[in-house]
Design goal:
single chain; about 325 residues; Rossmann fold; 2 domains; 8 helices
């Protein structure tokens, strides 16, 4: 069955990736509508050897649209997603606007695909760091329930949008030519530096990115008791996030058991070669959909065998955003 699809935010980093993923996966599109701000309207985009003109997003943009993929920021989603739903579309939204809203499914297809059919017009795509972590943690949780997760992230600049990549590139060029390094949108220089994730810090001392990982994991796993604490850091890498994850299980768990489970898990690829010191890296994870998992080892700080350490890397623009949304759309049809 082919469907009419709209991409909202079509000229942004994730919007462009939506189109690449839709083409690669041969998503059955009857008619495609590319929507963006007035500033981007009129731009020409090639999709599957056909030229499309980007249209300005308006209240009338969703006539006859069946699936609308949104990645234009929370304020746009809040304003236009209800409009799309009223016009008869199902919205798969990549912003944080609806993730924690009661009655809105928050979906990672490898984890909770059954939630997709429970939508009331909107399905939320989780935060990129949450998706990347939960793809490998979920299959372990199914075998041996997870009690606590301690995660530290190393997040690529393109996770902030196309401007994050631009800012890193500009600073690299300035350094190479002996010019002063200037920050524009990031709070600090990112070249030759790293800093706490550039999202507001709340009253508990956690920034928004960290709290997203905590709250979203509980919702996706349907387990409000699971303990999650996160430290999120922006690093001078163009693409693909990394995460160091310490997992506490209900029962003892060995690295060999973890490898066996993850070797069969959908969306996971084990990269764990101690002989060549080859483990998950952004350079390996970029432009692919699998989450890479390595450094699988026992937590030696515990004497009960219930702790496991893993290191993971995933492309936050693909599996952390566009691919996850397209997988949801595939299950809708």
């Amino acid at each position: 069955m082919s469907v009419n699809v709209a991409v909202v935010g079509a000229t942004g980093a994730v919007g462009e990736e939506f189109l690449r993923v839709l083409a690669e996966r041969n998503f059955p599109i009857r008619n495609l509508r590319l929507l963006a701000s007035a500033r981007s309207a009129g731009k020409k985009v090639i999709f599957k050897d056909q030229e499309y003109t980007v249209e300005e997003l308006t209240k009338d943009s969703f006539k006859d649209i069946q699936i609308a993929l949104f990645s234009a920021g929370g304020s746009i989603s809040k304003e236009y997603a209800p409009v799309a739903v009223s016009a008869g579309a199902v919205v798969v939204d990549n912003s944080s606007a609806f993730r924690m809203k009661e009655g809105v499914p928050l979906v990672v297809p490898e984890v909770n695909p059954e939630q997709i059919r429970r939508h009331n017009g909107v399905i939320a795509n989780p935060n990129c760091s949450t998706i990347i972590m939960n793809v490998p943690v979920w299959p372990l949780h199914q075998v041996n329930p997870v009690r606590r997760i301690i995660v530290s992230t190393y997040q690529a600049v393109s996770g902030a949008g196309a401007w994050g990549l631009y800012e890193l590139e500009q600073q690299q060029r300035a350094f190479a030519s002996g010019q002063p390094i200037r920050k524009e949108k990031f709070p600090h220089p990112i070249f030759n530096n790293l800093f706490s994730h550039n999202s507001p810090i709340g009253p508990q001392g956690y920034n928004e990115e960290e709290m997203k990982m905590v709250k979203e994991t509980r919702k996706i796993f349907n387990d409000p008791r699971i303990m999650v604490t996160a430290t999120c850091v922006r690093v001078p890498i163009p693409r693909a996030h990394c995460e160091s994850v310490n997992i506490e299980f209900s029962r003892p768990m060995t690295p060999e058991q973890v490898r066996q489970i993850l070797s069969r898990a959908p969306g996971v690829k084990i990269v764990d070669d101690t002989q060549t010191n080859t483990f998950p890296m952004p350079i390996l994870a970029s432009h692919q959909d699998d989450v890479l998992v390595g450094r699988i080892r026992q937590d030696i700080s515990r004497d009960d065998g219930r702790g496991i350490e893993i290191f993971i890397s995933g492309d936050q623009i693909r599996k952390g955003a566009a691919t996850n949304a397209v997988q949801i759309a595939e299950k809708l049809i």
